[in-house]
Each structure stands twice: as C-alpha cells, then as structure tokens.
Amino acid sequence: MAVLVGPIVMLGMLVVVPVGLRLAGIPGLDRIRRLWPLFAVPGAISLWLPRGDPATALAACYAVGAVLLALHAPRRLLLLRHLPTSRAPAELALLTALIAPSIAATALVAERSGHPLFGFGLGILALTVPHFHFAGFAAALIAGLVCRTADGRAGRFAALSVPLGTLLVLTGYFVGDWAELAGTVVLTAGMWTVALLTWRSIRDRNRDRVTRALLCVSSAVLAVTMLLALSWALGEATGLPHPTLAWMAATHGLGNALGFALCSLLAWRRLQNRTDHEGRTA
C-alpha cells in the first residue's frame, strides 16, 4: 500500500495544491503559491525516508506551508458577510480547500515521526494524508469552481456538501464509524452532483476535444470512486463485507487522484487559459 500512497501524496503536494491555488482566483494566494515548492519538495522527500527525525523535520517544512495557507481562511471567512447569499456556498467550499492541507500535514508529521496521533495508528495517519489532499482540498476546490459556474441550487448543494461531508468524516475519526458513514453519504451526494454538473457541461460545443475528454473522464471516475467510498464506510459501520484499505488505496485512492482530481484540474486550467486568452484578444 505504501508504494501507492507515496506517489499519490506527492501528486497532491507538488501538482494538485499549486494548480488548485492558481485556479481558486483568491487574492493574496499568489505569494504562497510561488513559495509552495519550498514547502512541498521537503514534504515529498520525507515520504521516502525511514521514520525518524530527518523525515519529521522535512514533513514539518510542509506543515509550515500548509499552516500559512490555512491562515488565509479566517480573512476570507470575514468577507462572507459582504457577499451575496448565492456566492457563499462556493466561498465556503474554497475555504475548506485552504484548510484541508493543514490537516493532511498534521497527520504527515505524526506519521513520519512514528508516533500515533489522537489514538490513530500509523497506517490510518498515512491514509489521512492523501485523503485530505484529494477528498479535502481537490474535492472542495472543484466543487467551489463548479458552483461558481453552475448557477442554481445543484451547484450550491454541491459546494455546501463538501465542507459538511468533510467535517462529518473528520468527526467520525473521533466519534465513530456511523458519523463517518454520515459524512461519506453527504460527501458522496455532493460529489455525484459535481459529476452530474460536469457531465452536463460537456455538451458545451465551444470547448475543445481535449478539455471535453478530461471533463468526461473526471465525472465518470468520480461516480465510481465515490460508490467505493460509500461501500467501504457502510461496511465499517455495519460489519458488512467491504473492500480492504489496501484495495481502496489501489482503486478509490488512485482513481480519485488521477481520474478525478488531476483530470479536473487540467480541464479547469485549460478553461482558465482560454478565458485569459480571449480576455487579452478582446
């Protein structure tokens, strides 16, 4: 499982977060985005070292960057009071994206040091790192972007369900499997809505073939990976047969990382580049 988790986490640190920060369009993030490699590269190196002080120190470098990113969230939260109600769900989703890497980084430091955190073993901590890069940061960011462009209740539901579902899943770590199941249900409903809205947007014939293909793959993969997440959470809560963690990492984790997050971000980046180009030539 470690062979899969390491590269997935590296993808989240080195690609997903900086590309996502560019797409967020939040004033004040440019500096932390430019500095991000200074934090992400040590964090990525820490994944391949034996547990101990050197790995912990490198993971702590990543944690510093994640905390600096999270510190932007309170400022953005204060701005919600001055925004129209229709824009609040998208902003809440983006705020969740800003906070999620700090949770991942906390788990990373504890796991690299070899010490359980809040009673969670090293295996669970290792899986928490990719979870909050993809089910936290990437899912919240993309739901927020979808909400910005999809004017309607479905977009707002998708944007609100990701923060709520993520919070419930995190609460489930401490309360029990049923709370985690509730969070997974909410998160699954929201991400399926994201997939549906993304699929509908493929009908836009103004988009190039590559962008349409990336959006198609991301929405199709998301439908499957969230079904896997739901089956796992249901099995944990009820005792019914369900996939193992290793199997989930190889299917749900890898699919979310490559099929959903990476394809979605590449598609949104292409859309942003096209919008910027059209703005310059107008």
Automatic annotation (TrEMBL):
Matching InterPro entries: YndJ-like
A Pfam cross-reference name: YndJ
Spans through the membrane: 6-25, 32-49, 55-71, 92-110, 122-145, 157-175, 181-202, 214-234, 246-268
Swiss-Prot/TrEMBL keywords: Membrane, Transmembrane, Transmembrane helix
The keyword Transmembrane belongs to this UniProt entry's keyword annotation: yes
Protein name: YndJ family transporter
Organism: Streptomyces gelaticus
Lineage: Bacteria, Bacillati, Actinomycetota, Actinomycetes, Kitasatosporales
